[in-house]
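FIELD: query
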Amino acid sequence: MDFNVKKLASDAGVFFTRAVQFTEEKLGQAEKTELDPHLENLITRADCTKNWTEKILKQTEVLLQPNPSARIEEFIYDKLDKKLPSRTTNAELLGQYMLEAAIEFGPETPYGKTLITVGEYQKRLGGAEREFLHTSAATFLSPLRNFLEGDWRTISKERRLLENRRLDLDICKARLKKAKQAEAKAAAAPDFQETRPRNYVLSASASALLSEEVDKAEHELRVAQTEFDRQAEVTRLLLEGISSTHLNHLRCLQDFAEAQATYYAQCHHYMQDLQRELNRSGFICRHCYDSHRPQYLLGHSPSPLGPVTLAMEQSQLPITGARKARVLYDYDAHDTSELSLLADELITVYTVPGMDPDWLIGERGNEKGKVPVTYLELLS
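FIELD: result
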């Protein structure tokens, strides 16, 4: 118990002395040992790395999970070291609602069939999103968190220890300076009564004490300098490891970009397939839709050829004969009757009687086939 009390008192004294030294440095009343420029640059670089890593990590979490409540739940599970329960994505939930609605409205009706088609693709999109979130968390978010919660804490601890060693060094420097000033002052102002034997003995004793105090201060300074140099070297080695951290984060960033590209490519592929399926069933749906529309919405009396022919005529009015069109997106032909397209290429398009209004005939050199209108920009 006595040992603990003495140690506590000693630690309190050291803390107070460091606080006085730190305050005097801030007020310009004490000298401060400056770190070498290389170490200062390493510290600045490390602080920059830590700050930007925190910002990138936080914003990536917002990007992957916009819901603050869900992020808090993930944080709690991570701190408790428990597995996060599987969460249904919004796209999967939407797809499930569409499938359930199709059952209510009738899966054989045009609306029900379309709900089933779109709902299934929404669930595929949700599955792709789930895979993307899992991959991003494992390959990008976890390494960033590991750096902030592991390596950076070690660096911060050693930097605090280095700062304490620097304060101790400056305290020893100030103590030695005061001891030398006291010794020089005593030597410059001798005791005029030292011719008396008693005063001479006292003067010699005081001089010996001052000299001993200087020797003690010099010894403490050497010890403090050694500990400071050793801690500076440890800190420097840790800070130089930031370069390896950058390389690791670079690989993680590349993995994240690759996962993102794969996710968006899957989404684009799914939506292309969905659009093709909707285009194939669009004739029936449009037929059903026009057959139930009031005549005043159609703008004129019914055509003697029926609503299907009327829809064709309306869609064909802007297109008279062959004309040029620019392809907006890549398109892969589903069968031999279709023409594959490449984005930004120019082709010749035209219509034929009785053709689905969502499709045109496209020609490129000796190649010919059906192309979807939604993939084209018609040129005047």
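FIELD: remark
Strands lie at 323-327, 346-350, 359-364, 367-372, 376-378.
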